[in-house]
Amino acid sequence: MCGRAIIIEEYAEKETVMKQIFIGIIRFYQKFISPMTPPTCRFHPTCSHYGLEAFQKHGAFKGFWLTLKRILKCHPFHPGGFDPVPEKKEKEHKH
């Protein structure tokens, strides 16, 4: 295996581990913290469901960025509403 392939494989393994950690944190929040608080999310899907879908669809790094942007929008001055996770764009191959 060439050096570049090893680096890509190591990156993919770390990405998977990080993604699972973030998903675990969200599931912990959904199971143990969210039930003790009143429903206040102004969005559909809720921020925690959005985060799960973002990590599952886009991986750890982009999923984290999308989730962070969503949470920062969740405040009294934003109207909320339907805000789905964007679809994953296919990478363009440059020749």
From TrEMBL:
<dbReference type="GO" id="GO:0005886">
    <property type="term" value="C:plasma membrane"/>
</dbReference>
<comment type="function">
    <text>Could be involved in insertion of integral membrane proteins into the membrane.</text>
</comment>
<keyword id="KW-0472">Membrane</keyword>
<dbReference type="Pfam" id="PF01809">
    <property type="entry name" value="YidD"/>
</dbReference>
<protein>
    <recommendedName>
        <fullName>Putative membrane protein insertion efficiency factor</fullName>
    </recommendedName>
</protein>
<dbReference type="InterPro" id="IPR002696">
    <property type="entry name" value="Membr_insert_effic_factor_YidD"/>
</dbReference>
<comment type="similarity">
    <text>Belongs to the UPF0161 family.</text>
</comment>
<keyword id="KW-1003">Cell membrane</keyword>
